[in-house]
Amino acid sequence: MLQGPLLAKLKMILTVGKSGRSNFFVRSFEMAKHHYLQFIVRGEDKELTFPVDEKTCTRLQDILDPNTSPRPQFFWFDTLSERSVVINLDDVQGVRYLWEAWPYVQEELPEGEAEASVLKLRGKEPLPLGVLEDGNEMQLFCSILETDPKVQPFPSFVDADGELFQVRASEVVWLDVPSSLVADVDDDDPESEVVSPTPKPSAATTKAPSRPVRKLVATDPRKWLKDNS
User: Fold this and answer.
1) Three-state SS for 4?
2) pTM of the entire structure?
3) Which residues of 91-117 are buried (b: 16+ CB within 10 A; e: fewer)?
């Protein structure tokens, strides 16, 4: 374990490498790099910063590539802090792709925060949603935003009080929920329930997906939405 002067010297070396004065050490410690996406969002006083894997950064770059068409309105990704985030690209004014040459260490959140969900609508303060129970409905809600919010302009989910909450998709700025809430069903688990159907992703979102491919439980997701809304 590195301690004392040796650790301080190593930190100095990596700082020099990151600033561009020495690329040799950056290459030497490339395996230790971890990445962040930092969004500058309209109406937000501070940047939104999320620890992610490199594939997520690459996927967003592909989506924002000028040659990508059609381009989805929302970007759905998982973070290393066990959160699942959906962000409206129409409200994103800029993105920074950051990295550090140290392994990511997750901070322990206060009790209750790790399971809580938050929704941000345009012109409103972030709305705490509490601890949601129905992961299937939230997964479907996120899927509608990610693929084509025009399929259902007012997608819905059941809130923490067990009441239906319909939201105008175009007014969603971002949504932050626990990854465990929208986790995919384990095909090897015979007791797992079948999840809600996910509309097929557009060509823009299939270049380099960082999320697992979500299975469809209906051959026609639009019909399923109509029959189950």
Assistant:
1) helix
2) 0.69
3) bbeebeeeeebeebeeeeeeeeeeebb
